[in-house]
Amino acid sequence: YRSQLRRENEFYSFNPPPDEKPADPGDEHRILSTGVKLCYLCGCPGQKACSRCHLVTYCSKEHQVIDWKQRHKKECCDEGAASVASEILNSFVFPERELVTEPEKLPVKHEELCASNSSEQVNYTSDLEEKELESMAFHETRDSKVFLKFKKCIATEPHQVLRYCREGSPLWLSSEHVPIKAEVPKCPCGAERTFEFQIMPQLLNHLKVDRKDASIDWGTLVIYTCTDSCDQGNKYSPEFIWKQDFSEDRVL
């Protein structure tokens, strides 16, 4: 979803917040410098206060119920416990991290090394035609080159979680399941959508979502946005995301 706000708006201060941390760590999670109260669970604006302690606020009744069961029941009316709990990572939301933005340092172009100079004679006993075998071999070679390019590009920064290059080209990890232009829908305003950024699989290591019963996984998430950056008013505008998964024989 895309949300565009002018610098002067009803949600955030015209000036950025100071770099200094507030004296009370709890206030950092609940109140912006503009005085807007935040949901104690997700951090979104929330005006619904706890009826017992009136110290914490929520954006909805659902979030208040979830947080009550998880932690607030133990800390309600205990200011000391609330301050400590505000510094504990909430298991309901993803962990918060700082993104460091740096230009990409492209590796020096060099010839691709051959895995082996030896050749093996393979006897096929199947009924595949020669053209089918050639087609399979070509596809395998092409896919290997795409994946090799992916690995080389991220080798210099193996911990990168996001690649931004508006109107550029995504870094695919496979030649399969790559969208053509017709598969990327236009924006509701009528303008074409263009590639803007992609989310890398390394982010999964930081989200801590890998569980035996349920897990999130992707090869790369490619986001296409409106070329005109149209103004849809004071609301979120849906954009388009393309998910490319790992193939069974591709592991980073």
TrEMBL record:
The keyword RNA-binding does not apply. It holds the Pfam family zf-MYND. The keyword Metal-binding applies. Keywords: Metal-binding, Zinc, Zinc-finger. Gene3D superfamilies: 6.10.140.2220. This is MYND-type domain-containing protein. GO terms for cellular component: cytoplasm; nucleus. Residues 39-76 form the MYND-type domain. Signal peptide: none annotated. It comes from Electrophorus voltai. One of its GO terms (molecular function) is zinc ion binding.
